[in-house]
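The passage that follows is intended for readers who have already worked through the single-chain material. We present the inputs for a multi-component assembly, then the predicted structure in tokenized form, and finally a short commentary. You are encouraged to pause after the input and sketch how you expect the pieces to fit together before reading on.
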Amino acid sequence: GQQLNQSPQSMFIQEGEDVSMNCTSSSIFNTWLWYKQDPGEGPVLLIALYKAGELTSNGRLTAQFGITRKDSFLNISASIPSDVGIYFCAGQLKGGSEKLVFGKGTKLTVNP
Amino acid sequence: GAVVSQHPSRVICKSGTSVKIECRSLDFQATTMFWYRQFPKQSLMLMATSNEGSKATYEQGVEKDKFLINHASLTLSTLTVTSAHPEDSSFYICSSGYNEQFFGPGTRLTVL
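Having made your guess, compare it with the prediction:
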């Protein structure tokens, strides 16, 4: 089946640093989504991207839909302790009510 | 975004019993909902697509007779784990939405 390659697998940073993570695919996706999951909870949608080249921000978070439609990145600026968690990328080949394909996640640790 | 609830949040049961998990779309009429399971330190694994008024579509390797899905209304899908065994212990999460998928808070199942 389809797979998304998400990297890095984990990151250990100091509070205040910027973070970048990305996902790549061998297939073209119509939708890219970025989620954050805290322990014991469901994933929470951070940013949704629908157009190739689209750059979208949500507070300190910025994500881009790659121009080739086969990749996306998520940046977090000026990290704070509550940014700790697991970040997942997800994509849809077509969109709508189609199922999501998930990356394996990036575990972020922020040292105060 | 859409609000998705799950009930119960935690359940402990004896081996051999059946457990029903509810997923409700509180502000969105969902013709399609998705059920995932997640093992510790792993990504979400799609189990099945729940279709309102018709049979669910199961992913390869997921036993449809063991994981019964009923989507009788546009706001409710249920997942019943039949004859549960300890290896069924996991975190079960549902999602709903169009383009953007919104996740429920998850249900922690522990089978003794």
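Commentary: The longest strand of chain B covers residues 90-98. The interface with chain A takes residues 1, 4, 6, 31-32, 34, 42-44, 46, 49, 60, 91, 93, 95, 98-106, 108 of chain B (CB under 8 Å). How closely did your sketch match?
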